[in-house]
Amino acid sequence: MQIMQGAIAAAWQQLAGSELDATLDLDFQPITGGESVAGEGAGSEGALVNGLVFALLSDAGLALKLPEADQLKLLEMPNTRRLPSAPHTLEGNPFIVLPSRFHNDIASLSIWLKRSIDYVLSLPESQPV
CA distances (Å), 43 to each of 8, 31, 49, 56, in order? Predict the structure, then answer.
C-alpha cells in the first residue's frame, strides 16, 4: 500500500506545478462501511481529491476511476483489468487496475492520474466521503 501511496504522491507533486489547481487537496482514507475492494475490505484505501475518491488501493493494485473512453484505452494495455468488487455506479465499474510498472513510471502515472482527477471533479453529483 505504501508503494502505491508513494507513487500517487509523486505523480501529484509532478502535476502540482502546472497541471493541478493549487486549491486541490490529496488525502488517503481507509475504505469503511460495507464496501469491499477485491475482498480486502479492511485493507483497502481510497485516494481522494477534495474528499472525492479518484483511486482505490488494495491487494488487487492501484485502480483509477475513469470515464469509459479512458477505461477502454487502458484496458488495451497489457496487465490492466477492471477492479473486482469495486463499488459500481449506474455506468458500471469505473475503476481500472493499472499494471504495477506504473508505480515506478511517474510520468505515465501522472497522465492517467490527471485524467482520473478531472473526471471525478466533473461528475455532477459527486459527494465527499
Answer: 17, 8, 20, 11
